[in-house]
Design a protein that fits this description.
This protein is 9% helix and 31% strand. Helix 3 packs across helix 4. The chain has 7 helices and 24 strands. It has a 5-stranded mixed beta sheet. Strands 6, 7, 10, 11 and 12 form a 5-stranded antiparallel beta sheet that branches. Strands 15-24-21-17-18 form a 5-stranded mixed beta sheet, with no helix packed on it. The chain folds into 2 domains: 222 residues, Sulfite Oxidase, Chain A, domain 2; 129 residues, Immunoglobulin-like (Sandwich), CATH 2.60.40.
């Protein structure tokens, strides 16, 4: 007989089958640790990405966790530090859900020239899902946590082994209170181990590197994790993934400047003012669009009008418009949004009907958010030394983070008589 409450069950079985057999909709980049992107643009056509097609990004090996034994500690600037069981997190607090188009900050790294460091993600390190769990603000308020403006919540994953860097991200308190979740369900079911079972922080609208998996500790503090204390705490470095990785570092830098706080959490604003933050942090996602149909090298007929469809997202901001070009960017026309608007962190679908003429065509899409920020055209070269978006160019950086330039994302099609 099925269990009385299917949401109380554990994750799907973890057979010994290879990752690509368990996730048939993914293209596996590395198997140990597991990193894989959705294998086709068409997988992103819908409002929700099935778990089997949603990208996976891990830094250490995926842990084998028994949720019945898993606890999360709340420490730091709190009245009563506590360890909470999964049962308490599920049942003692309100439940909320959010639709979030989550993008890996390395998505589009494959289009950097010369190559940037790391797995060569193309367009598939992105996925839309309904995440369900406990609002972080309710847990913080229930235990007397300090929640003043300017404080930080550092959230730590429990996968690091002895000598490994702990995956830790510092989230500004304003964002933590606004809409962050401790999620235990993905698209209505328990998450798979690779997606963070049994508990994952979800930071809606922000790059996926902020959505810490396998959460086992939350620490309320005055600053981001920084300094010697956190670099060698309990034999682990907690600062690597906050202060060194997930920063925009051009080829000319040896090591990014470390900060205890920043004035803006908008990645775009940091990229626009690199004199204030020389190495932008990957927080809020950038405006971006992707054509999902027709696909690359499609053969089309001029006998019929061609429907071009795609998706767009803009992190914490709404997508204001999407424009299409069928001639490699020489001319542009506005596309139409279709379907429902599922919230500011969800994907927007767009459509454009094209009276195609015979020949080879490069199809491009570019999105603009509600603040008037438009996708840049292309990626700069390392020699240009850009630290921010300038003159339609996205800055080349050592680890290929944040690429939202539209030219590399275009598709080439042939239209026949």
């Amino acid at each position: 007989m099925p269990p009385e409450d299917p949401h109380e069950t554990g994750p799907p079985d973890r057979p010994d089958a290879p990752l690509d057999e368990r996730y048939p909709g993914l293209n596996v980049l590395t198997a140990d640790p597991e990193n894989a992107e959705t294998s086709a643009r068409s997988h992103l056509e819908g409002y929700l990405t099935p778990r089997e097609e949603h990208y996976i990004r891990t830094h250490h090996r995926t842990p084998d966790i028994d949720a019945d034994d898993w606890t999360v500690s709340l420490t730091g600037m709190v009245e009563d530090g506590i360890e909470l069981s999964m049962d308490e997190i599920r049942h003692d607090y309100p439940t909320d859900s959010v639709v979030h188009m989550m993008e890996c900050s390395g998505n589009g790294r494959a289009y950097f020239d010369p190559d940037a460091e790391g797995d060569q993600w193309t367009v598939g390190a992105v996925g839309s899902a309904i995440w369900t769990g406990t609002p972080v603000r309710d847990l913080l308020n229930d235990h007397g946590a300090a929640t003043d403006e300017g404080l930080w919540l550092s959230v730590m994953g429990g996968e690091a082994k002895e000598g490994e860097d702990v995956f830790c991200r510092s989230i500004p308190m304003e964002k933590a209170l606004d809409d962050c979740l401790l999620a235990y369900e993905m698209n209505g079911d328990p998450m798979t181990p690779e997606h963070g079972y049994p508990l994952r922080l979800i930071v809606p609208g922000w790059f996926g590197n902020n959505s810490v998996k396998w959460v086992d500790r939350m620490h309320v503090m005055e600053t981001m994790v920084a300094g010697e204390e956190w670099q060698s705490r309990n034999g682990h470095d907690y600062t690597e993934y906050q202060q060194s990785s997930y920063r925009i570092v051009p080829a000319q830098d040896d090591d990014p400047e470390r900060h205890e706080s920043v004035e803006t959490f908008s990645t775009y604003e940091q990229l626009r003012n690199p004199e204030e933050i020389r190495n932008a942090y990957l927080f809020d996602q950038l405006v971006k669009s992707l054509i999902t149909s027709p696909t690359e090298e499609a053969a089309l007929s001029s006998d019929e009008r061609v429907e071009i469809t795609g998706v767009a997202w803009a992190g914490d901001d709404a997508v204001e418009r999407v424009e299409l070009s069928t001639d490699g960017g020489e001319t542009w026309d506005e596309a139409s949004f279709v379907g429902p608007d599922l919230g500011r962190h969800a994907v927007r679908k767009f459509r454009y009907v094209w009276d195609a003429t015979p020949g080879q065509h490069t199809l491009l899409s570019r999105a603009t958010d509600e603040e008037g920020r438009e996708q840049p055209v292309t990626v700069s070269t390392p020699d240009e030394g850009l630290r921010g978006i300038s003159d339609g160019k996205y800055p080349w950086n050592e680890k290929g983070y944040g690429n939202n330039a539209y030219v590399p994302l275009g598709v080439s099609v042939a239209v026949e008589e």
